[in-house]
Amino acid sequence: MWRPFDNGQSIGTKGSENGVIVFDEEHDWGARITLERDGEIAPWSITCGIYGGFLHTAFASSEAEGRTKFAAMKAALVAIMEDENPDSRYEKQQRFAVTY
C-alpha cells in the first residue's frame, strides 16, 4: 500500500527540511512520508502527514535512527488511517506527535 511518491522522481531532490530526499513514499489511503539527510535543523528528518488531517516532522541524529523512525512512523500512520472513530483517530494523532 506504500509506493514511491511521484514514481521515485523526488529522490535526490531537496525536501521540506532543505535536505536531500532519501525515501519518499505515499500510501494509497492518502498519506506521505519522507526521509531526508543533511537538512537545516538535523542530520536526518522524517516529514509525514495524512492528507487533510495533520503534518508532522521528527528528527534523528543518525541514519540508523532515521530509518528506524521512518519505519515505525509508517506503521503508526496506517493505524491512524485504519481507525474509523474520529475521537480515537484524533487521540492517535496526538500520541503520534508526542512519540515522534
State the end-to-end distance: 22 Å
H-E string: EEEEEHH
Number of domains: 1
Biggest β-sheet, characterized?
5 strands, antiparallel
Question: Topology of this structure?
Answer:
Elements: E1 2-4, E2 20-27, E3 31-37, E4 44-50, E5 54-60, H1 63-82, H2 86-99
Antiparallel strand pairs: 1-2, 2-3, 3-4, 4-5
Helix pairs in contact: 1-2
Q: Could you walk me through the main structural features you see in this protein, from its secondary elements to its overall organization?
A:
This protein is of the alpha+beta class. It has one domain. It has helices spanning 63-82, 86-99; strands at 2-4, 20-27, 31-37, 44-50, 54-60. Strands 1-2-3-4-5 form a five-stranded antiparallel sheet, with helices on one face. Helix 1 (63-82) runs antiparallel to helix 2. The mean pLDDT is 97.
What labels would you give this structure?
5-stranded antiparallel sheet, 2 helices, 5 strands
Concise synopsis of the structure shown:
The protein has 100 residues and is α+β, with helices and mostly antiparallel strands.
